[in-house]
Design a protein that fits this description.
The protein is α/β, with parallel strands linked by helices. It is 28% helix and 29% strand. It contains ten helices and 14 strands. The strands form three sheets. The chain has a seven-stranded mixed β-sheet with strand order 10-9-8-11-12-14-13, sandwiched between helices. Strand 6 and strand 7 form a beta hairpin. The longest helix has 15 residues. It is globular, with a radius of gyration of 18 Å.
Length: 297
Protein backbone atom coordinates (compact mmCIF):
# COMPACT_ATOMS: atom_id res chain seq x y z
CA UNK A 1 0.00 0.00 0.00
CA UNK A 2 1.31 3.41 -0.93
CA UNK A 3 0.17 6.39 1.16
CA UNK A 4 0.02 9.53 -0.92
CA UNK A 5 0.28 13.15 0.06
CA UNK A 6 -3.14 14.81 0.40
CA UNK A 7 -2.27 17.20 -2.41
CA UNK A 8 -1.83 14.41 -4.97
CA UNK A 9 -4.37 13.75 -7.67
CA UNK A 10 -5.12 10.98 -10.12
CA UNK A 11 -5.83 12.32 -13.63
CA UNK A 12 -7.45 10.25 -16.34
CA UNK A 13 -5.66 11.38 -19.47
CA UNK A 14 -6.16 9.78 -22.89
CA UNK A 15 -5.35 11.64 -26.08
CA UNK A 16 -6.74 8.66 -27.99
CA UNK A 17 -10.14 8.48 -26.28
CA UNK A 18 -10.84 12.06 -25.16
CA UNK A 19 -8.14 14.41 -26.43
CA UNK A 20 -7.80 17.78 -24.80
CA UNK A 21 -9.59 16.99 -21.56
CA UNK A 22 -9.19 14.92 -18.39
CA UNK A 23 -11.03 14.01 -15.21
CA UNK A 24 -9.14 14.22 -11.91
CA UNK A 25 -9.73 12.84 -8.43
CA UNK A 26 -7.96 13.82 -5.24
CA UNK A 27 -6.62 10.64 -3.70
CA UNK A 28 -5.78 9.63 -0.17
CA UNK A 29 -4.08 6.29 -0.85
CA UNK A 30 -3.19 3.91 -3.63
CA UNK A 31 -4.64 0.72 -2.21
CA UNK A 32 -3.18 -1.58 -4.86
CA UNK A 33 -1.18 -1.51 -8.07
CA UNK A 34 -0.09 -4.35 -10.35
CA UNK A 35 0.32 -5.43 -13.94
CA UNK A 36 -1.80 -8.50 -14.70
CA UNK A 37 -1.38 -10.61 -17.83
CA UNK A 38 -3.73 -8.25 -19.65
CA UNK A 39 -3.67 -4.77 -18.13
CA UNK A 40 -2.48 -2.35 -15.50
CA UNK A 41 -4.72 -2.43 -12.42
CA UNK A 42 -4.91 0.37 -9.90
CA UNK A 43 -7.28 0.69 -6.93
CA UNK A 44 -7.53 4.10 -5.27
CA UNK A 45 -8.98 5.45 -2.05
CA UNK A 46 -10.45 8.93 -2.53
CA UNK A 47 -11.99 9.27 0.94
CA UNK A 48 -11.17 12.31 3.04
CA UNK A 49 -9.97 12.72 6.62
CA UNK A 50 -11.99 15.94 6.79
CA UNK A 51 -15.42 15.04 8.18
CA UNK A 52 -16.90 18.14 6.56
CA UNK A 53 -15.99 16.83 3.08
CA UNK A 54 -18.62 14.22 2.22
CA UNK A 55 -18.23 14.63 -1.53
CA UNK A 56 -15.73 11.90 -2.41
CA UNK A 57 -15.80 9.02 -4.85
CA UNK A 58 -14.78 6.33 -2.35
CA UNK A 59 -12.90 3.33 -3.73
CA UNK A 60 -12.04 3.59 -7.42
CA UNK A 61 -11.03 0.88 -9.92
CA UNK A 62 -8.70 2.00 -12.73
CA UNK A 63 -7.63 -0.21 -15.65
CA UNK A 64 -4.88 0.95 -18.00
CA UNK A 65 -5.25 4.47 -16.64
CA UNK A 66 -9.03 4.65 -17.26
CA UNK A 67 -11.60 4.80 -14.47
CA UNK A 68 -13.91 1.78 -14.62
CA UNK A 69 -16.06 2.44 -11.57
CA UNK A 70 -16.22 4.47 -8.38
CA UNK A 71 -18.01 3.64 -5.17
CA UNK A 72 -20.01 6.86 -5.38
CA UNK A 73 -21.74 6.42 -8.74
CA UNK A 74 -21.17 2.86 -10.00
CA UNK A 75 -24.79 1.87 -9.34
CA UNK A 76 -26.05 4.12 -12.14
CA UNK A 77 -24.03 2.29 -14.79
CA UNK A 78 -24.56 -1.23 -13.40
CA UNK A 79 -28.32 -0.88 -13.06
CA UNK A 80 -28.84 0.60 -16.50
CA UNK A 81 -26.68 -1.83 -18.48
CA UNK A 82 -28.48 -4.67 -16.70
CA UNK A 83 -32.11 -3.58 -16.47
CA UNK A 84 -32.47 -1.87 -19.86
CA UNK A 85 -32.07 -5.20 -21.72
CA UNK A 86 -33.61 -7.39 -19.01
CA UNK A 87 -36.79 -5.33 -18.85
CA UNK A 88 -36.98 -5.09 -22.65
CA UNK A 89 -37.19 -8.90 -22.86
CA UNK A 90 -40.49 -10.58 -21.90
CA UNK A 91 -38.83 -13.56 -20.20
CA UNK A 92 -35.05 -13.25 -19.66
CA UNK A 93 -34.40 -16.60 -18.00
CA UNK A 94 -30.83 -17.22 -19.14
CA UNK A 95 -28.29 -14.38 -19.29
CA UNK A 96 -24.66 -14.09 -20.38
CA UNK A 97 -22.35 -11.36 -19.08
CA UNK A 98 -19.15 -10.77 -21.05
CA UNK A 99 -16.59 -8.88 -18.96
CA UNK A 100 -17.75 -7.19 -15.78
CA UNK A 101 -14.94 -8.54 -13.61
CA UNK A 102 -15.79 -6.19 -10.75
CA UNK A 103 -19.08 -8.06 -10.20
CA UNK A 104 -21.34 -5.01 -10.43
CA UNK A 105 -23.37 -6.12 -13.45
CA UNK A 106 -23.79 -9.60 -11.98
CA UNK A 107 -25.05 -8.02 -8.75
CA UNK A 108 -27.84 -6.31 -10.69
CA UNK A 109 -28.71 -9.09 -13.15
CA UNK A 110 -29.34 -11.68 -10.43
CA UNK A 111 -31.87 -9.30 -8.81
CA UNK A 112 -34.30 -9.56 -11.71
CA UNK A 113 -37.14 -11.87 -10.63
CA UNK A 114 -37.41 -13.67 -13.98
CA UNK A 115 -33.68 -14.44 -14.32
CA UNK A 116 -32.94 -18.05 -13.41
CA UNK A 117 -29.41 -18.62 -14.72
CA UNK A 118 -26.49 -16.24 -15.24
CA UNK A 119 -23.23 -17.16 -16.97
CA UNK A 120 -20.31 -14.74 -16.88
CA UNK A 121 -17.02 -14.89 -18.76
CA UNK A 122 -14.20 -12.56 -17.70
CA UNK A 123 -10.72 -12.74 -19.15
CA UNK A 124 -8.73 -11.32 -16.22
CA UNK A 125 -8.98 -13.31 -13.00
CA UNK A 126 -7.00 -10.63 -11.13
CA UNK A 127 -9.77 -8.07 -11.62
CA UNK A 128 -12.19 -10.54 -10.04
CA UNK A 129 -9.95 -11.34 -7.08
CA UNK A 130 -9.01 -7.73 -6.38
CA UNK A 131 -12.64 -6.63 -6.64
CA UNK A 132 -13.59 -9.22 -4.04
CA UNK A 133 -10.99 -7.71 -1.73
CA UNK A 134 -11.40 -3.98 -2.37
CA UNK A 135 -14.86 -3.64 -3.97
CA UNK A 136 -17.05 -6.05 -1.98
CA UNK A 137 -20.10 -3.83 -2.52
CA UNK A 138 -19.86 -4.81 -6.19
CA UNK A 139 -18.20 -8.24 -6.05
CA UNK A 140 -21.09 -9.52 -3.92
CA UNK A 141 -22.68 -10.28 -7.30
CA UNK A 142 -20.40 -13.30 -7.56
CA UNK A 143 -22.00 -14.84 -4.46
CA UNK A 144 -25.38 -15.55 -6.07
CA UNK A 145 -26.42 -19.18 -6.60
CA UNK A 146 -27.72 -18.09 -10.03
CA UNK A 147 -24.21 -17.22 -11.26
CA UNK A 148 -21.59 -19.39 -12.93
CA UNK A 149 -18.28 -17.57 -13.54
CA UNK A 150 -15.77 -18.64 -16.19
CA UNK A 151 -12.32 -17.12 -16.57
CA UNK A 152 -11.62 -16.99 -20.28
CA UNK A 153 -12.11 -15.26 -23.62
CA UNK A 154 -15.63 -14.05 -24.43
CA UNK A 155 -15.26 -14.70 -28.17
CA UNK A 156 -14.29 -18.33 -27.67
CA UNK A 157 -16.99 -18.81 -25.05
CA UNK A 158 -19.78 -17.63 -27.34
CA UNK A 159 -18.54 -19.67 -30.28
CA UNK A 160 -19.35 -22.81 -28.29
CA UNK A 161 -22.83 -21.70 -27.16
CA UNK A 162 -25.06 -21.17 -30.15
CA UNK A 163 -28.69 -20.25 -29.45
CA UNK A 164 -28.39 -20.43 -25.64
CA UNK A 165 -29.12 -17.02 -24.15
CA UNK A 166 -32.09 -14.71 -23.84
CA UNK A 167 -29.90 -11.69 -23.04
CA UNK A 168 -26.18 -10.99 -23.57
CA UNK A 169 -24.66 -8.04 -21.71
CA UNK A 170 -21.18 -6.85 -22.63
CA UNK A 171 -19.56 -4.84 -19.84
CA UNK A 172 -16.32 -3.87 -21.55
CA UNK A 173 -13.69 -1.24 -21.02
CA UNK A 174 -13.24 1.49 -23.64
CA UNK A 175 -12.44 0.60 -27.29
CA UNK A 176 -8.66 0.52 -27.07
CA UNK A 177 -6.37 -2.47 -26.75
CA UNK A 178 -8.06 -5.89 -26.33
CA UNK A 179 -11.51 -4.35 -25.75
CA UNK A 180 -11.51 -2.80 -29.23
CA UNK A 181 -12.66 -6.11 -30.73
CA UNK A 182 -15.87 -5.93 -28.66
CA UNK A 183 -17.02 -2.98 -30.79
CA UNK A 184 -16.45 -4.67 -34.17
CA UNK A 185 -19.14 -6.06 -36.45
CA UNK A 186 -17.82 -9.61 -36.05
CA UNK A 187 -18.47 -9.48 -32.31
CA UNK A 188 -22.14 -8.59 -32.76
CA UNK A 189 -22.52 -11.30 -35.38
CA UNK A 190 -21.14 -13.80 -32.90
CA UNK A 191 -23.43 -12.51 -30.15
CA UNK A 192 -26.42 -12.91 -32.47
CA UNK A 193 -25.60 -16.60 -32.96
CA UNK A 194 -25.35 -17.14 -29.21
CA UNK A 195 -28.84 -15.71 -28.65
CA UNK A 196 -32.18 -17.47 -28.69
CA UNK A 197 -34.56 -16.37 -31.51
CA UNK A 198 -35.95 -13.30 -29.68
CA UNK A 199 -32.76 -12.46 -27.81
CA UNK A 200 -31.47 -9.05 -26.80
CA UNK A 201 -27.95 -7.65 -26.44
CA UNK A 202 -26.68 -4.64 -24.53
CA UNK A 203 -23.16 -3.21 -24.57
CA UNK A 204 -21.28 -0.31 -23.05
CA UNK A 205 -21.60 2.43 -25.65
CA UNK A 206 -19.19 5.24 -24.84
CA UNK A 207 -20.27 8.89 -24.91
CA UNK A 208 -21.64 10.93 -27.78
CA UNK A 209 -19.96 13.99 -26.32
CA UNK A 210 -16.46 12.62 -26.84
CA UNK A 211 -16.73 10.13 -29.73
CA UNK A 212 -19.87 10.41 -31.83
CA UNK A 213 -18.10 8.62 -34.71
CA UNK A 214 -17.54 5.51 -32.59
CA UNK A 215 -21.18 5.48 -31.51
CA UNK A 216 -22.48 5.94 -35.04
CA UNK A 217 -20.15 3.34 -36.54
CA UNK A 218 -20.87 0.75 -33.83
CA UNK A 219 -24.61 1.17 -34.27
CA UNK A 220 -24.07 0.63 -37.98
CA UNK A 221 -22.31 -2.67 -37.22
CA UNK A 222 -25.17 -3.78 -34.96
CA UNK A 223 -27.87 -2.89 -37.51
CA UNK A 224 -26.37 -5.40 -39.94
CA UNK A 225 -27.39 -8.21 -37.56
CA UNK A 226 -30.41 -6.95 -35.57
CA UNK A 227 -33.74 -5.57 -36.85
CA UNK A 228 -34.33 -3.40 -33.76
CA UNK A 229 -31.55 -1.22 -32.35
CA UNK A 230 -31.27 1.67 -29.94
CA UNK A 231 -28.94 3.85 -27.92
CA UNK A 232 -29.83 4.69 -24.34
CA UNK A 233 -28.06 7.12 -22.02
CA UNK A 234 -27.42 7.52 -18.31
CA UNK A 235 -25.71 10.05 -16.07
CA UNK A 236 -22.51 8.81 -14.40
CA UNK A 237 -20.39 11.72 -13.05
CA UNK A 238 -17.04 9.90 -13.05
CA UNK A 239 -17.22 8.98 -16.75
CA UNK A 240 -16.02 11.39 -19.47
CA UNK A 241 -18.47 14.30 -19.77
CA UNK A 242 -20.60 12.71 -17.03
CA UNK A 243 -22.64 10.61 -19.44
CA UNK A 244 -22.45 7.03 -20.73
CA UNK A 245 -24.41 5.30 -23.48
CA UNK A 246 -25.60 1.75 -24.09
CA UNK A 247 -26.01 -0.07 -27.38
CA UNK A 248 -29.10 -2.28 -27.21
CA UNK A 249 -30.61 -4.46 -29.91
CA UNK A 250 -33.25 -7.16 -30.28
CA UNK A 251 -33.81 -10.02 -32.71
CA UNK A 252 -37.56 -9.62 -32.20
CA UNK A 253 -38.71 -7.01 -34.72
CA UNK A 254 -41.71 -6.20 -32.50
CA UNK A 255 -39.59 -5.11 -29.54
CA UNK A 256 -40.19 -1.52 -28.40
CA UNK A 257 -37.04 -0.65 -26.50
CA UNK A 258 -38.51 2.47 -24.91
CA UNK A 259 -41.52 0.58 -23.55
CA UNK A 260 -40.32 -2.08 -21.08
CA UNK A 261 -41.98 -5.50 -21.01
CA UNK A 262 -41.40 -5.72 -17.28
CA UNK A 263 -42.76 -2.77 -15.29
CA UNK A 264 -41.68 -2.36 -11.67
CA UNK A 265 -43.80 -0.65 -9.06
CA UNK A 266 -42.18 1.76 -6.58
CA UNK A 267 -42.39 -0.97 -3.94
CA UNK A 268 -40.60 -3.45 -6.21
CA UNK A 269 -37.88 -0.91 -7.02
CA UNK A 270 -37.26 -0.43 -3.30
CA UNK A 271 -37.29 -4.16 -2.63
CA UNK A 272 -34.72 -4.73 -5.40
CA UNK A 273 -32.60 -1.92 -3.87
CA UNK A 274 -32.45 0.00 -7.14
CA UNK A 275 -31.14 3.55 -6.82
CA UNK A 276 -31.11 4.69 -10.46
CA UNK A 277 -33.27 2.47 -12.64
CA UNK A 278 -37.05 2.88 -12.71
CA UNK A 279 -39.61 2.22 -15.41
CA UNK A 280 -39.78 5.98 -16.05
CA UNK A 281 -35.98 6.20 -16.39
CA UNK A 282 -36.10 3.28 -18.85
CA UNK A 283 -38.61 5.06 -21.06
CA UNK A 284 -36.71 8.34 -21.10
CA UNK A 285 -33.24 6.79 -21.59
CA UNK A 286 -33.89 6.55 -25.32
CA UNK A 287 -34.98 10.17 -25.69
CA UNK A 288 -31.85 11.76 -27.12
CA UNK A 289 -30.90 15.40 -27.69
CA UNK A 290 -31.91 16.57 -31.17
CA UNK A 291 -28.38 16.54 -32.58
CA UNK A 292 -27.83 12.97 -31.33
CA UNK A 293 -31.15 11.69 -32.64
CA UNK A 294 -30.39 13.12 -36.09
CA UNK A 295 -26.85 11.71 -36.05
CA UNK A 296 -27.88 8.17 -35.10
CA UNK A 297 -31.21 7.79 -36.86
Amino acid sequence: MVTMDSSEWFSEVSEQLWPGQCFSLKIKKVLHEERSKYQDIKILDTSSNDCSMSFTYGTVLVLDGIIQCTQRDEFAYQEMIAFLPLCSHPNPKKVLIVGGGDGGVAREVVKHPLVEEVHQVEIDDRVVELSKKYLPFMACGFDSHKLQLTIGDGFEYMKQREGEFDVIITDSSDPVGPAKSLFNESYFGLAKKALKPNGIICSQGGSLWVDETLVKDTLSHIRKHFPVTGYGIASVPSYPCGQIGFFIASLNENTKLNEPSKVFSSEEVDRLKLRYYTTEIHRTAFTLPRYAAKLLH
